[in-house]
Specification:
With about 550 residues, the protein is of the alpha+beta class. The chain has 14 helices and 27 strands. Strands 1, 2, 7, 8, 9, 10, 18 and 19 form an 8-stranded mixed β-sheet that branches.
């Protein structure tokens, strides 16, 4: 890639050093990609905006090699408790199977703490250059690069990058300067958000109070922090008006006595429920709030942005490394767009139902929930949050095969005994950060037809033992230690499973279908490398 007039060039420019931008930078750094992060502010944010991070996101931080920096800033949460009109508990949503992804399900945290932890991690990474006080002003798209124009103070900056990630929030310069619109709506309701200190709440779960006279949310955090959100009514506040302390004191009075110095942040705001019309503009991409904004009632705003980063960064890294053709990058929008839109819609529905101000609707809601939790199926639907959109890719880098329901979904992260290291490890630690081909009870003779996939993707090749026998094999073997590996993969017995770097199942097939699956998978790679003799089988 030819440099611009300043001579500065890099693999990827990340616009925005919020949680999504820093997550993307950490994931790229873990793969050795050169990154420049540009942030218009002078440091990380002091505003505790996002307050909930889920087990999927913590798994992403494990893959980025930074989870040990993140875990100290979270409360290991136990989900959300929903209260009805009379204040009584309707149900406690703890999520699906506990610890399936190796982390607690839904975890309160303070965004400034997370940003500082991530900034420290990427600053320590040798391939990342984090620059504050630098405002992005425009982009020039070229066939082989993007020139990013910015200003550090009064000094103009131009950087040539192979790709640009716009993680620059709801007023994204990456989106606005390139003429991309958003579809959806803004909600008229005004909410007061108050972040407090020295709070008496110690619960490890969020509390949604469906009181139609004053819908509100309480989320306790670390070390006496607590988030309160209250629905405001006519005359109580507007988004462009600072909330009065008298209002804050009155609304919090049912829970605590508060002084002005115990208010960390207080703002009035309205929710947006919008999705960008395009997520890929030439060689630039939109992530997080730049691509989608949603009401907070499902707690998925930040988590959706982290999913964006987890989906896109390994694809870019593999394109830069020559493992994938650049055409696969269009799969980012086709995979993430439908799930993000469904999550936006869920957030709106939860707000309408859980936070209604209609006594009639609230009474009907409470009655229907009571009937549901009286049945095993209804209780599971609510307590396991089965109403959340399932992550299931049917388009993009997936080969549905003869069992499409088992492909395009994430695999869990059980503990395994790894014969390569003779240690008990979490699955992602055993497999590393790249592609993996698992032979689930397959024969040694069947591996020969799969080796081109392993070579073409530089994949780790491992055998999975589900029974009580110890296979005699030249491959590394992962062995079940507590039944969790069997639960994840027993329905793939006798098949090969291709795991993407984001641990979504890309393909699963019997040995008899290896030729067909191999052709589909290798179509994602540049033709020049699929038969390269120097790409040897990697047994891990």
């Amino acid at each position: 890639m030819a440099p611009n007039a300043t001579g500065e060039r890099v693999d990827v420019v990340v616009c925005g050093a919020g949680p999504v931008g820093l997550t993307a930078a950490a994931l790229l750094a873990a793969r050795g990609v050169g990154v420049v992060v540009l942030e218009q502010h002078s440091g990380t944010s002091d505003e505790p905006k996002a307050i909930s991070i889920d087990d999927e996101a913590l798994r992403v931080y494990q893959q980025a090699g930074v989870v040990d920096r993140v875990l100290p800033v979270i409360v290991p949460g136990t989900g959300t408790r929903y209260h009805g009109c009379d204040g009584q508990v309707l149900f406690h949503a703890r999520g699906p199977q506990a610890f399936r992804l190796a982390y607690p399900f839904k975890n309160p945290f303070a965004q400034p703490d997370l940003e500082r932890a991530l900034a420290a991690a990427v600053t320590a990474a040798p391939t990342v250059d984090l620059r504050f006080d630098t405002r992005v002003t425009g982009f020039d798209q070229h066939p082989d690069r993007v020139t990013v124009h910015a200003r550090t103070g009064t000094t103009p900056v131009a950087i040539d990058a192979a790709y640009v990630l716009g993680c620059d929030g709801g007023r994204s310069a990456t989106r606005l300067s390139q003429g991309v619109g958003m579809t959806g709506r803004s909600h008229d309701e005004v909410w007061l958000v108050v972040d407090t200190l020295d709070d008496p709440h110690t619960e490890r779960f969020a509390m949604h109070h469906g009181d139609p006279d004053r819908p509100h949310v309480i989320v306790p955090g670390l070390s006496g922090r607590c988030r309160y959100e209250f629905r405001l009514f006519d005359g109580e506040g507007a988004p462009d008006r600072k909330p009065s302390f008298d209002l804050i004191r009155r609304l919090l009075s049912r829970y605590r006595v508060i002084t002005e110095d115990q208010v960390e942040r207080a703002v009035n705001y309205r929710f947006n429920a919008v999705v960008a019309d395009e997520w890929m503009i030439g060689r630039s991409f939109l992530l997080g709030d730049a691509a989608h904004m949603m009401p907070p009632f499902a707690g998925q705003g930040l988590n959706s942005g982290i999913r964006d980063a987890a989906n896109l960064t390994w694809k870019i890294a593999d394109v830069l490394a020559g493992r994938l053709d650049a055409a696969v990058l269009s799969s980012y929008h086709s995979e993430r767009g439908p799930h993000a839109l469904a999550t936006v819609r869920l957030s709106e529905r939860l707000g309408r139902v859980v936070m209604t101000t209609s006594r009639r609707v609230a009474a009907r809601r409470d009655a229907e929930v009571a009937r549901a939790v009286a049945t095993d199926e209804g209780r599971a639907h609510l307590e396991e949050m089965r109403y959340r959109p399932a992550l299931h890719y049917t388009d993009g880098l997936v080969v549905p095969g003869d069992r499409p329901e088992t492909v395009g979904v994430p695999v869990g992260q059980p503990l395994v005994f790894d014969t390569g290291t003779h240690r008990i490890r979490r699955l992602d630690d055993a497999l590393g950060i790249g592609w993996a081909v698992l032979g689930v009870g397959t024969s040694e003779a069947d591996w020969a037809a799969v080796e081109p996939v392993v070579r073409g993707l530089d994949a780790v090749a491992v055998r999975v033992a589900l029974g009580d026998d110890m296979p005699r094999t030249g491959h590394r073997t992962l062995i079940d230690v507590d039944g969790a590996l069997v639960r994840e993969l027993a329905h793939h017995a006798g098949r090969f499973v291709l795991l993407r770097p984001d641990r979504v199942i890309a393909a699963a097939w019997p040995a008899s279908s290896s030729a067909e699956t191999r052709a589909r998978v290798l179509s994602w790679a540049p033709a020049s490398i699929t038969d390269s003799p120097e790409r040897v089988l990697n047994h891990g």
